[in-house]
């Protein structure tokens, strides 16, 4: 990317792994919680990484950043998770430059989501970008790219019907409950964990089950109380978890912990219990399936549920891809202008020097010299000349490198090597 004058590194990479090749267990090895994200960013800063955005959701963990070699980014990920380089090589992907840019567009637009049209990832991308900016790890290129992806995501959401119907894991979990459990409105439902997926699931539960027996538990009780207040739900202390599980017919786990928070030993009741684990890493130990009364469903299974709305959304893919192509092209055109931005800047400075010298001569010659008017005229002329050169360099039929060399030679330019 050096030729675009946007980074001291040659390459922009997207490295990561997703639901497509990595199962929930492997994705759990590479999952990043808030603390490990901060450690990764600090290490990147120490390693002189210029710009970096890190996302980690239930479906994927990714790093977008500048490096001379992708291993620099892979090592950052492995150093701050339980994953190993060997595991990464087996299931991961590495995209470079334009492929990396296109990948971010598809991810941010919901076209690469586990459930087609799931737009929850775009808010994750926004938050990750904000965090990188806060830690001085966001250059102009990455910020502009993320903004372009956000623009594409908004257009797809408003100009197509790809997000109609069940578009998220949280909705799919409620849909599964409705399809699997009779008389849902009379069942006792316990939601353990009130992070983003937990909050969204809670909202969908209230909206679609008409259930008045929903209880929330979170390690930080105040967070659960904030959500419960919106929907008039019951909140219990974390210390009451085992008792509340015994009272429940349905347990939804979305705690976001790095180790299982539920196992067979905490389940004391023998009545039928449906457990939905919406967490990566898995927060429900597989040993619960040793209990005859327990049915366990993980989000990877939920995402495979198909319905009529999914088929309808598939028909919207060509329209969504056309929007992506349009916004991506606009971004690519901007990127191409970065090739000659330093030369145009240097040309403008050279012309300004010519104008200043000539204005000084005219000032001495004419006692009634109009300083303000002369400055306006000269600035307008300089702007028109540089605009003409810029339009010439944007022309696809013009060999840009040759034109740049000619401009530099004619005007004896020494463009700044500072990255713009």
Automatic annotation (TrEMBL):
Enzyme class: oxidoreductase
Binding site for substrate: 57-60, 113, 118-120, 124
UniProt site positions, description: Important for activity: 103
Pfam annotation, one family: Shikimate_DH
UniProt GO MF annotations: glutamyl-tRNA reductase activity; NADP binding
Subunit text: Homodimer.
Protein's UniProt name: Glutamyl-tRNA reductase
Organism the protein comes from: Allotamlana fucoidanivorans
């Amino acid at each position: 990317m050096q030729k675009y004058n946007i980074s001291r590194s040659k390459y922009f990479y997207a490295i990561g792994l997703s639901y497509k090749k990595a199962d929930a267990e492997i994705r759990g090895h590479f999952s990043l919680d808030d603390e490990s994200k901060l450690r990764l960013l600090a290490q990147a800063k120490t390693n002189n990484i210029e710009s970096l955005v890190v996302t980690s959701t239930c479906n994927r963990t990714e790093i977008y950043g500048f490096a001379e070699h992708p291993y620099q980014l892979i090592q950052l990920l492995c150093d701050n998770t339980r994953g190993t380089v060997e595991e990464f090589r087996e299931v991961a992907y590495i995209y470079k430059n334009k492929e990396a840019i296109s990948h971010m567009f598809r991810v941010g637009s919901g076209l690469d989501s586990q459930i087609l049209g799931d737009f929850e990832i775009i808010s994750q991308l926004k938050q990750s970008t904000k965090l990188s900016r806060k830690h001085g790890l966001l250059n102009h290129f990455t910020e502009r790219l993320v903004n372009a992806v956000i623009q594409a995501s908004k257009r797809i959401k408003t100009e197509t019907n790809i997000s109609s119907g069940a578009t998220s894991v949280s909705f799919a979990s409620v849909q599964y409950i409705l399809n699997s459990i009779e008389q849902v409105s009379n069942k006792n439902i316990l939601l353990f964990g009130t992070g983003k997926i937990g909050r969204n699931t809670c909202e969908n539960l209230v909206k679609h089950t008409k259930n008045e027996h929903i209880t929330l538990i979170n390690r930080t009780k105040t967070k659960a109380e904030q959500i419960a207040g919106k929907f008039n739900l019951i909140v219990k202390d974390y210390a009451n978890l085992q008792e509340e599980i015994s009272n429940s017919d349905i347990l939804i786990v979305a705690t976001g912990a790095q180790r299982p928070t539920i196992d067979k030993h905490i389940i004391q009741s023998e009545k039928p219990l449906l457990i939905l684990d919406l967490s990566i890493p898995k927060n429900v130990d597989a040993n619960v399936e040793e209990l005859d009364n327990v049915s366990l469903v993980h989000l990877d299974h939920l995402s495979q549920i198909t319905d009529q709305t999914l088929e309808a959304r598939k028909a919207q893919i060509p329209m969504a891809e056309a929007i992506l192509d349009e916004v991506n092209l606009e971004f690519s055109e901007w990127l191409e202008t970065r090739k000659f931005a330093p030369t145009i800047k240097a040309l403008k400075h050279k012309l300004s020097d010519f104008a200043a010298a000539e204005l000084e001569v005219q000032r001495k010659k004419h006692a009634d010299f109009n300083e303000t008017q002369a400055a306006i005229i000269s600035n307008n002329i300089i702007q028109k000349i540089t605009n003409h050169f810029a339009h010439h360099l944007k022309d696809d039929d013009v060999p840009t490198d040759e034109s740049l060399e000619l401009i530099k030679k004619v005007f004896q330019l020494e463009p700044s090597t500072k990255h713009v």
